[in-house]
Specification:
- The complex is a heterodimer of chains A (538) and B (64).
- Chain A is built from 23 helices and two strands.
- Chain A has 538 residues and is mostly helical.
- In chain A, helix 5 runs parallel beside helix 11 and helix 7 packs across helix 18.
- The longest helix of chain A is centred in the middle third of the chain and has 39 residues.
- Chain A is globular and about 65 Å long.
- Chain B is an all-alpha fold and 64 residues long.
- Chain B is built from two helices and no strands.
- Chain B is elongated.
- The relative contact order of chain B is 0.20.
- The chains are: A mainly alpha (538), B mainly alpha (64).
- At the A-B interface, helix 5, helix 10, helix 11, helix 13 and helix 14 of A face helix 1 and helix 2 of B.
- Chain A: It is found in: Membrane.
- Chain A: InterPro entries: Na/Glc_symporter_sf (IPR038377), Na/solute_symporter (IPR001734), Sodium:Solute_Symporter (IPR050277).
Chain lengths: 538, 64
Amino acid sequence: MNPGEHVTEIVIFTVLFLVVSGMGFVAARWRRPQDLASLNEWGLGGRNFGSWITWFLVGGDLYTAYTFVAVPALLFGAGATGFFAVPYTVIVYPLVFLILIRLWSVSHVHSLVTPADFVRVRFGSPTLALLVAITGIVATMPYIALQLIGIEAVLKTMGIAGSGFLSDLPLIIAFVILAAYTYQSGLRAPALIAFVKDILIYLVILVAIIYIPARLGGWEVIFGRAQEKFAATPAQGDGILLNANNQLQYFTLALGSALALFLYPHSITGVLASKNRNVIKRNMSALPAYSLLLGLIALLGYMAIAAGVKPIGTDNNTVVPVLFDQMFPDWFAGIAFAAVGIGALVPAAIMSIAAANLFTRNIYREYINPQATDAQEAGVSKLTSLVVKVGAVLFILLIDPQFSIDLQLIGGVIILQTLPSVAIGLFTRWFHKAGLIAGWVAGMGGGLILLYNISNPAIKHAHFGGSAFPLAKLGLDTKMTIYAGFLALLLNLIVAVAGTLIARAAKVPDGPDGTRPDHFTADEGDPRVKDLDLSSST
Amino acid sequence: MPGNNRDRSPWYWLLLVPIAVPLMTFLYNATEPTLFGFPLFYWLQLAFIVLGVATTTLVYRMTK
């Protein structure tokens, strides 16, 4: 496409992008702390966010630009199976309700910053904590890279991205700006930007779901044309309804994704930044507003079919931007593109902060400098957040984007393997650290083997072709598929239970538990361990 | 100690309902009845959002 036809869009996109970047830098002064030089302030915004800020921050964190581009692309390509995003984001909140308030409480009492910090205190095992930290970093990195794909899809539609170094320049500039204000302002930057991002997204989607169906002849026409398209393709798995073979995959993928979502370090960062338990509880009933938004956005995929959208090249991720470009007047398309572009900045910033905190707390402080001061920790995290973002840019520039999509798929499966130590660990200390380590190894290995054996002829992948594992490969006489992460987690749990029983029988020494039952129910104002130490030493 | 029983309220069991219902594909894997042109598959799953919000709101109020 020719950038000349898109001048209005490019101007509006650039202006909004710059305004938001300015907000990112100013954010350092927002809710003025006396000193930003600690992870409590730089990495968790002072642990003092109320219900509104938390709603915008966590919403902006979980529902990423990539989601908004990729989920409609799934419906555009395969139909009903892509709609799993809706049950996934409905069940996640009741599912994690108790988990998150207990994690908040124990983190409040012990001043914990990362999920690996919790594992360290609960199971007394630096090794297990290191495994959880590395899993978190590895799962998060490709996720940050994917946010760039969201921006890239928009840039491509405006005709200012393609191949060669110069065409990558806008993407690099966007990320340099992002890196700079995250470095300066920490979590306050995405928290402040999230307001603008979400207001823009809600505005664009409300207009899109009223205006586009009206132009296309109504919802019946849209679903009808989608059905015609899928009926005409030779593929067996597509259609506007599920078939007998992909229902198991549909609900195990929804359940597995829901279990994985709040194990991602960036989700936990957003939650730990809130002020008290009631803020989290209130958000569990307010955050589904975004799920409604996501469900409507998903249907943009069918609107694109009905409007006869042709993706740019073979990149299905461009269908939503192209749909906006075709349907909206230029000025509104510019706003819509800015919404997607800015939508990538919020999660990318939080993810890089979360990955940096994991490195600082569970590698630097544990193995390199155990005596690190608060200021040293903040300094290391700031630098690491830069390294993480440079890594993400290199990922996109040097490697086929399809590879980051594959890695993100793997990311969901591997982050699930921290569930026994992080989520179950919040309720019971029954597991032995040796059992949990064995379970992690088994789940990780098993998950990778399953994913390696999934082929996808549609994208010419012999391996890592998706997350739907055919049960026939386990010797079962069926065409049904199941979410690979779900099987890997089952294996992990079985090995963790067996390993715990063996370790107990063999009297292998277990790590000390640094928590007490009341630590899991403490609230704002209850004493912290640090305060208790101080009062007992004076 | 304060709050030792905070997480033991029976109300929390109610959270199982909006977890279980959206996973039962047989409830909604059909076209009819349609609503505003949406096949059942789409409008019912969107309606489950309301079920989720109602349940978590109730549990929040009862355990505040």
